[in-house]
Amino acid sequence: MGSEGPPAVTFHVTGFKKFHGVSDNPTEKIVNNLNEYLKKNGLPKGVTLGSCTILETAGQGALVPLYQTFQSAVSKDTEQSNFSKVILLHFGVNSGATRFAIEHQAVNEATFRCPDEMGWKPQKVPIIPADGGISKTRKTCVPVDEITRSLAKMGYDVVTSDDAGRFVCNYVYYHSLRFAEQNGVKSVFVHVPLFQTIEQDVQMQFVASLLELLASLC
After folding, report:
1. In sequence order, what are the residues at sequence separation of 6 or more whose Cβ sits closer than 8 angstroms to the Cβ of residue 130?
2. 22: exposed, middle or buried (C-beta count within 10 Å: 0-12, 13-18, 19+)?
3. What percent of the chain has pLDDT over 90?
4. 3-state class of 188 per DSSP?
5. From residue 6, how far is each of 86, 149, 186 by CA, in Å?
6. CA-based nearest residue to 169, from 3, 5, 7, 19
7. 59: closest CA among 126, 104, 146?
8. What are the pLDDT digits (tens) for 79-111?
9. Which H or E run includes 170?
10. How many angstroms separate the CA atoms of 169 and 179, rounded?
11. Which of 134, 146, 189, 198 matches a 20 to 30 Å C-alpha distance to 102?
12. 132: Cβ–Cβ under 8 A, 6 or more apart, which residues?
């Protein structure tokens, strides 16, 4: 068994429902269709799909289901195998973007330009007060630059980013990075454009390529 290559990486993938200005969130479709897409097109080498979850586009009011997703990722992994690595992979939409962006970091600041789907509109509020002020950042330990370069070589229009915004995407990513660090797993966030900008099939191919690269490099 030891000669079969590196251990599988178990992915727990999230997307978001609709929110202000985006009635049809591409990440909801990507994540809902991912299992079927991978079954049909072949699971990338070293990849296990642990769960696919669609999150409310909300901050504070949606923390309980968010942490349930995190917690089940860790407990499922313990049940599955000690040899499996876990990556929390989050997708969010940037409706103004023309390409994919893999996010290096999240900032401990919630400043929502509009209320989230539960009506919360924080301004310059620390996401986790115990972490300190709103300038505190948490960075992913995933090799973002290397993955971006490899994806670009495959022909995808993709960049690295140091700014995940200050809305729900950044809010979720900050919590996820903190949870990942505390539980010995990894977390990474990817912004995608609307399907009008990059069509759904290309986005699905991108996600499959990303999973394979993450499994081989992490």
Report:
1. none
2. middle
3. 83
4. strand
5. 13, 22, 17
6. 19
7. 126
8. 555 556 999 999 999 999 999 999 999 999 999
9. helix 168-183
10. 15
11. 134
12. 108, 126
